[in-house]
Design brief:
The complex is a heterodimer of chains A (171) and B (551). Chain A starts with a strand and ends with a helix. Chain A has an 8-stranded mixed beta sheet with strand order 2-1-8-7-6-5-4-3. Chain A is built from 7 helices and 8 strands. The radius of gyration of chain A is 18 Å and the shape is globular. Chain A is α/β, with parallel strands linked by helices and 171 residues long. Chain A folds into 2 domains: 3-140, TIM Barrel, CATH 3.20.20.70; 143-171. Chain B is an alpha+beta fold. The chains are: A alpha/beta (171), B alpha+beta (551). Chain B: Residues 119-272, 408-547 form the Nitrite/sulphite reductase 4Fe-4S domain.
């Protein structure tokens, strides 16, 4: 499954560690939420980056104490119809100020890229190669955005207001 | 009218081009039907019994003549020459070909019409009072807020994959013509003690197999905070709404299971943390949207022009005027409802020729503006009273002057088993038969206001629960049967109708309705007592007795 990060297909440096499997001594790991919460310190203080795979039915509040020490959080889309992780992503980015990697996993298709990016995701485990290849092109699909989110894109309302100000300044 | 600017137009075109790519990927097999299903639903495309059905949004029910002509063009060019106006200010085309859909969308985009979120588990077309901006006594034009919400809900990055569909309706009048109490969120515009504009927010209304009347979650939310408050509700719903069972996934079930107090606390907690955010609307932003609504340059006209006095001698004109013409906030003008419920016709259908002709009449008599109401009728919102006689003649020639607005033959019906893959029973032929039974206008007029609503299955697209008489099609051993409820209403006093007894077979429905109406005529304490008030006073028993005594 290709990983798209910073707009490009890249090698996934994180090793997914299953429940019960042994933790590698070093290197970046992504561990399931339950395992992480069992002993967060053990995972956070090892050599190598730590990431957690967070289910979409558990409040992200439980992660808040660890956010500044987590290198990656992977949120889950069990099917692309299940949109709970969009709310989790915005809460992590906009309310809790998380600035590490925020990864979309599960059924991730090109038709969700813009929504996901607007919600704060910056890494995507894409289901289909063709969709991963089309990432850059797909992200250019929209140039107008109505809602303010934490992604910094200027909303249509703000662009109109700017336009009004520059018009009235020119008079 | 609201004028789309370059940004609105760009977004619609970008959506068309995205959808064109999605259709292409489906036709090439790159997308599975399961993947494509969700994507097409996000853009109003259903697969029905015989063909794809295409639902186009008419936000808050306002259309320009140019837009209506383009809808006529789509009906003619891509469909079978007609369209069907729905109960949520949409129009549906029933015979569209998938490969041609992107072109149809592109034609519509040229006049600022789209199909975004007319289906799917997202925030649907925001609806409002079809008399917005012209009804006397309105707090203010609710379309300004509808447009703010339309923009905010369009392609929302957090709420495009909700547990289930989500519908918002807005009213600014005391008499609710937008049925806000049967919506996921209902907004009633009003002013607080300080004269500030805001909303009573209702939540958790809806019909379907578990009907609920919406409950007030907050009596007053200031206008500037409405986006953050709506967003707080949506965020709670997106996270906690049930996703394990499609029939329990609407917000009404979450509100019911948590109770309105607990749900309100959850929303408040969320809102408290987001209320002072980029979502707060300052005056200039609201004014910016307001400034893009244009209003007609009304003339100073007499209350009772000579043309109207003369025409009053024609009983047919008078009959129509009394039925279909409503007071306007500006002296000398009227709001005219165009009945799409001719005797024997399918409710809410209009041919391409009718649409074109209505567009011409709108240009001539209504400043180029047309409205679409949830009762599946059209309206011309700014008709000078002196023009009423001429307009009536023109409408009569088009078959759009049936004087049955709000009467027993002004039936709301879903497409039913004639089109819909979900239906258990037919709706349209029942409606057609009832319009024939009550075709005599004097009888219908004597009966007075009476709303009949027909749904072909429990999903309740015909809003049967809130019909004064509700008719619900069910299937029993492979046969079409119908449950009858009475006493429902969708207005500011919204309530669900009560079942009168066992379901009756298809062939008996019209007889049963006639019996109910006859019982009412015998039971009402004076001619002014409406059917629904008689039911309220006496309960269902006397009606039940009448219907089942001989069956």
């Amino acid at each position: 499954m290709p990983l798209v990060k910073n707009g490009r297909i890249t090698t996934d440096l994180f090793v997914h560690v299953a429940d019960g499997a042994e933790l590698p001594g070093d290197g970046a790991v992504l561990v399931p939420a339950a395992r992480f919460l069992e002993d967060p310190e053990a995972i956070l203080k090892r050599a190598g980056k730590a990431g957690v795979i967070w289910p979409n039915n558990r409040a992200v509040d439980d992660l808040v104490p660890y956010l500044d020490r987590l290198a990656a959080i992977a949120l889950v889309f069990p099917t692309f119809r299940d949109g709970r992780a969009y709310s989790q992503a915005r809460l992590l980015r906009e309310r809790h100020g998380y600035d590490g990697e925020l990864r979309a996993t599960g059924q991730v298709l090109r038709d969700q890229f813009v929504f996901m990016s607007r919600a704060g995701f910056d890494a995507f485990e894409v289901k289909k190669n063709a969709d991963a290849d089309a990432f850059a092109e797909t992200m250019k699909r929209y140039s107008v955005f109505y809602q303010p989110t934490g992604d910094g894109r200027v909303t249509a309302l703000n662009r109109r207001m700017q336009l009004r100000h520059s018009e009235s300044a020119g008079q | 009218m609201y004028a789309y600017d370059e940004l609105d137009r760009t977004l619609i075109n970008e959506r068309v081009s995205e959808f064109r790519d999605q259709v292409k990927r489906r036709l090439s097999g790159e997308l599975t039907e399961d993947e494509f299903k969700m994507l097409r639903l996000q853009n109003g495309v259903y697969l029905q019994l015989h063909a794809y059905m295409f639902r186009v949004a008419i936000p808050y029910g306002t259309l320009s003549s140019k837009q209506l002509r383009r809808l006529a063009h789509v009906a003619r060019r891509y469909d079978r020459g007609y369209g069907h106006f729905t109960t949520r200010q949409n129009i549906q085309f029933n015979w569209i070909k998938l490969a041609e859909l992107p072109d149809a969308l592109s034609d519509l985009a040229e006049v600022g019409i789209h199909a975004m979120q007319t289906s799917g588990n997202n925030m649907r077309n925001v609806t409002s009072d079809q008399w917005a901006g012209v009804a006397p006594g309105e707090v203010e034009d609710p379309r300004i807020w509808s447009e703010i919400l339309r923009q905010h809900t369009t392609l929302h990055p957090e709420f495009s994959f909700l547990p289930r569909k989500f519908k918002i309706a807005i009213t600014a009048s005391e008499h609710d013509r937008a049925a806000i109490k049967i919506h996921d969120i209902g907004l009633r515009l009003h002013k607080n003690a300080d004269g500030e504009t805001g909303f009573e927010v209702l939540v958790g209304g809806g019909l379907g197999r578990t009907p609920f009347i919406a409950k007030t979650i907050k009596p007053f939310v200031h206008g500037r905070d409405i986006l953050s408050y709506v967003e707080a509700i949506l965020r709670v719903y997106n996270q906690y709404g049930r996703r394990d069972n499609i029939y329990k996934a609407r917000i009404k079930i979450l509100v019911h299971e948590l109770g309105i107090e607990k749900f309100a606390r959850e929303v408040d907690e969320e809102w408290r943390q987001m209320s002072d955010s980029a979502l707060t609307l300052d005056h200039s932003v609201i004014d910016e949207v307001r400034s893009r609504f244009s209003y007609p340059a009304y003339e100073k006209l007499p209350h009772m022009p000579d043309e109207l006095k003369q025409a009053a001698h024609d009983p047919l004109f008078e009959r129509w005027r009394k039925n279909s013409v409503a007071p306007h906030k500006v002296q000398g003008y009227s709001i005219v409802t165009l009945s799409l419920k001719p005797v024997g016709g399918p409710p809410g259908d209009a041919t391409a020729d009718q649409m074109d002709a209505v567009a011409d009449l709108a240009d001539k008599y209504s400043f180029g503006e047309i409205r679409v109401g949830h009762e599946q009728n059209l309206a011309l919102p700014h008709v000078a009273k002196r023009d009423l006689p001429q307009l009536w003649k023109a409408l009569d020639r088009l078959g759009l002057a049936t004087p049955n607005v709000n009467l027993v033959t002004d039936i709301i019906a879903c497409p039913g088993l004639d089109y819909c893959s979900l239906a258990n029973a037919r709706s349209i032929p029942i409606a057609q038969e009832l319009t024939r039974r009550f075709a005599n206008h004097d009888t219908a007029d004597m009966i007075g206001r009476l709303h009949i609503n027909i749904s072909g299955c429990i999903n309740a697209c015909g809003h049967h629960h809130v019909g004064h008489i509700g008719i619900l099609g069910v299937e029993k051993n492979g046969e079409e049967f119908y449950q009858i409820t009475i006493g429902g209403r969708a207005d500011e006093n919204a309530q669900m109708g009560v079942l009168i007894g066992p379901a009756v077979p298809y062939a008996e429905v019209a007889d049963v309705i006639e019996d109910i109406v006859e019982a009412y005529l015998a039971l009402r304490d004076r001619p002014e007592e409406l059917f629904v008030d008689t039911v309220k006073r006496l309960g269902v028993e006397p009606f039940k007795e009448r219907v089942y005594a001989t069956r």
